[in-house]
Amino acid sequence: MSAPDPNNIKVRFAPSPTGYLHVGGARTALFNWLFARRLGGALVLRIEDTDVARSSDEMVEGILTGLRWLGIDWDEGPFFQNQRLDLYRSVSDKLLRSGHAYYCFCTKDELEARRELARGDGRQYKYEGTCRGIVPGEALRRKDAGESCAMRFAAPQDGTTRVEDAVFGQVEFANMEIEDFVLLRSDGQPTYHLSVVCDDIDMAITHVIRGADHLSNTPKQMMIYQALAAPMPVFAHVPLILGTDKSRLSKRHGATSVMAYRDEGIVPQAFRNFLALLGWTPKASPGEKAVEIFRDQEMIAKFSLEDISRSNAVFDRAKLDWFNTEYIRAMPAAELLPLIEQEWAAARIQPDTSDRNGLCTTIDLLKARARNLHDFAVSFAAFFTDEFAIDPAAREKFLADEKVRGLLRELGQRYAGLREFDEGGAEAALRQLAADHDIKAGALINGARVALTGQAVAPSLFAVMVSLGKERTVRRLLAV
RNA sequence: GUCCCCGUCGUCUAGCCGGCCUAGGACAUCGCCCUUUCACGGCGGUAACACGGGUUCAAAUCCCGUCGGGGACGCCA
Q1: Is A283 known to be catalytic?
Q2: pTM for the whole thing?
Q3: Which of A258, A252, A202, A241 has its CA nearest to residue A225?
Q4: Which residue among A58, A122, A289, A358 sits deepest, i.e. has the most Cβ atoms within 10 Å of its Cβ?
Q5: pLDDT for A460
Q6: Chain B bases closer than 7 angstroms to a protein Cβ
């Protein structure tokens, strides 16, 4: 068990395309990516599609889309296990010849019956090694005669297998707990344990970073490495992500597919930052204040397996929303624009995009108040299109008074006569009008805000007016 | 059931080779200030070492047990 060559770091993300990229998988991918980028290693993407019946091309596409959305790129692959079956067969042959594996003729039904029996007695079932004693020649003869059989690994019956995990430390398993697991199904397809180990060896993976749900499988895989006399990778199991009730994250806790978060108006960088901090806390340099907002380079520079937590983490939507707010506020308008354009498309609004600079100025004005990308297509719609709805509650509160409406129309007329339309001039004209009619300026300000934006909440009113421009401001005031 | 892992504010966590912890930060929450709305911002508050035994002058920190949660026990991955 020699240490991997530090100059040849290679990790992999190996999802199974039986579902979309979910948040747990995304975080595993992220940690692998962060680790590879930190150490200058390579990230391999490998699709584990040996369960043909449950895998689909659509899911593969969904996973790739999810990774790209998160900004996780890979250096090799995607490789598909289904195209590497020869490798698994040759390795299983080798295991068979060296006596580390044997053919098993027990049928699924027999196995199921025995499991059922054990359950009834309250015993744990473990394959009893029924076929282990069949001499190889006899087994081969039966197989050649057409008898259906699987191939099992002949697991050591005594001693212990110790996992040296980069996050969990030393974890020991008694070998007698481990049954002779299946390597090859009776249809010749490899099982997970065989294919991962074959690929991880063949692809020269140095660090296996994966979910903690695989920790108890690790001794089985280590046994295969040992039987093959192959160098052991470093294992690093990362704790799981839980729902708010501390049970495993599932649909009933909300979205589990990462693409759902794009659809919910989350900025990918924000999602990635949030995910990274779920189970990982970077070491703060002495005296440094703990910071939680990290852009790519900083996150990569700080990443380390040692700082990964051993306890499971609850997915906290409120904190994700906070990250989203922070990112929207901090990002340059030009970077936000493409994301916002997707929101417009989804909301079927078509702003005039010929004036990019003007658009960016408006986005800069609004972004401090946004909490979600949807805001740019919903509550801020009035800034980008004339087809916006007026919030009924806001209208009721600030535009119900006919006197106010009349004054707003008059304000529109005064604005129309202004040569220079800037914040100072717009404000002065409004305050003058209020004074002329002995009404509080606030009443006109609140009313104008609703008339101009359709909302009771918006940026500073006079900045809004300038952003909309004189022509639109006047038109909306006159129409009140 | 068996094996493995985990257990600090509601949440993510710092601390955990014992004293510097009257347990720190962030999110959330509450209050005040700022203010043309809302947000931001500023200031302040509420809030945790699962429980029980040890060891020790001293335990969140070490040991044991209990309880709780999670994972694994498939010809799924």
Answers
A1: no
A2: 0.93
A3: A202
A4: A358
A5: 92
A6: 1-8, 10-15, 24-28, 36-40, 69-77
